[in-house]
Design a protein that fits this description.
The chain has 308 residues and is of the alpha/beta class. It has helices spanning 20-31, 47-51, 60-65, 77-85, 90-93, 108-120, 133-138, 150-155, 157-163, 175-203, 208-215, 223-233, 243-259, 265-282, 290-297, and strands at 12-16, 35-39, 55-56, 69-72, 99-102, 124-127, 130-131, 142-147, 164-171. Helices cover 52% and strands 13% of the residues. The mean pLDDT is 96. Bound molecules: NADP nicotinamide-adenine-dinucleotide phosphate.
Length: 308
């Protein structure tokens, strides 16, 4: 199968999904000089990219007809299935030799299915979920976890470099998504720890910002503490990373673990706490709002209040 040469000004890119992550990531590719066609369920969210020179397409299929490489970063596996494999999906519009790059956090098995169905049509596909949050996307500092054929992954280097700082091929199709599940398993219990620690500090009457000065740089420091701790303390519960997307990710990881006969009780506990948070009305809040659900268990009033 041929591969497109990826050169700004020559290669035509397509971008499906212009939400929190996709808008920034696509913006970096535009800034590098790539010609980009965009589409999104809600057109208004793509308008800022159109204002910067992107072209609009009505469907992923129409977008793929004009593109050498098609990126997608939508919400859930069902959205991935629709935008890539559906009747108006990118695969049916993709040219022979084109590349589909799904950057959504999605199911490893779906990534394998997409790669197989793409291959039948002479199209390449890689899974490339990301870590680094909304800030990492804005600052082009993402860690990109890639599954796919080595030569296809290598050909995409100019695009990876526009969006991320750490790009690692983890193995064949599905390996990127499996690695992202490892990432989410790490974050899940870490978030519980961060919230419990800050609740303890609050209840003990300590000044939370002063506490962060001591525990942040030591062995207890973490990305979650450094990035989400201040948001919790300031009562900033805006997304960032939606609670409902994190529940989706933990559900995928738990299902994969069950399939492998692997018990992950820490992950299961974190998932249940997040389900409670969603039930309390915070599905569309940022994941740092977990502190509110844990505060509620002990009837603690959190200092930042409820400003989600
Ligand atoms: P988001 O803001 O909801 O963005 C998703 C975008 O995809 C939305 O603009 C949505 O359209 C669009 N979309 C969904 N289904 C579609 C469909 N069927 N057809 C066309 N467009 C569709 O979410 P996000 O925070 O950018 O996250 C995107 C993905 O990255 C998720 O899988 C998430 O788990 C993952 N992720 C997020 C973060 C983070 O920190 N935010 C970090 C790493 C990974 P609408 O505008 O109509 O909603």
């Amino acid at each position: 199968m041929s591969l497109p040469e990826i050169i700004p000004g020559k290669t035509r890119l397509g971008w499906i999904g212009t939400g929190v992550m996709g808008s920034s990531m696509c913006g970096h590719l535009l800034a590098k000089g790539f010609a980009v066609t965009v589409t999104n369920r809600t057109r208004a969210k793509a308008e800022p990219l159109v204002a910067k020179g992107a072209e609009w397409a009505d469907t992923p299929r129409a977008l793929a007809e004009k593109s050498d490489v098609v990126f997608s970063i939508v919400g859930y596996p069902r959205d991935v299935r629709q935008v890539l494999l559906g009747d108006d999906g990118a695969l049916l519009g993709a040219k022979s030799g084109a590349i589909l790059v799904d950057m959504t956090t999605s199911e490893p098995s779906l990534a394998v299915e997409i790669a197989e169905r793409a291959k039948e049509r002479g199209v390449h596909a890689v899974d490339a979920p990301v870590s680094g949050g909304d800030i990492g996307a804005r600052e082009a500092r993402l860690s990109i976890m890639v599954g796919g054929e080595p030569e296809v992954v290598a050909a995409l280097q100019p695009c990876w470099e526009a969006m991320g700082k750490k790009i690692v091929r983890q193995g064949p199709a599905g390996a990127g998504q499996h690695t992202k599940m490892v990432n989410q398993t790490l974050i899940a219990t870490c978030m519980v720890g961060v919230c419990e620690a800050l609740l303890y500090a609050h209840r003990a009457g300590l000044d939370l910002n002063t506490v962060l000065q001591s525990v942040g740089p030591g062995a207890a420091g973490s990305w979650s503490l450094a990035n989400y701790g201040p948001r919790m303390i300031n009562g900033d519960f805006k997304p960032g990373f939606y609670v409902e997307h994190f529940i989706k990710d933990m559900g995928i990881a738990l299902a994969e673990a069950r399939r492998m006969d692997l018990a992950l009780p820490g992950l299961a506990l974190a998932e249940q706490l997040y389900v409670a948070l969603k039930a309390q009305g915070h599905g569309r809040s940022g994941t740092q709002s977990l502190v509110l659900a844990l505060a509620a268990i002990s009837k603690v009033e959190w200092p930042g209040g409820v400003k989600a």
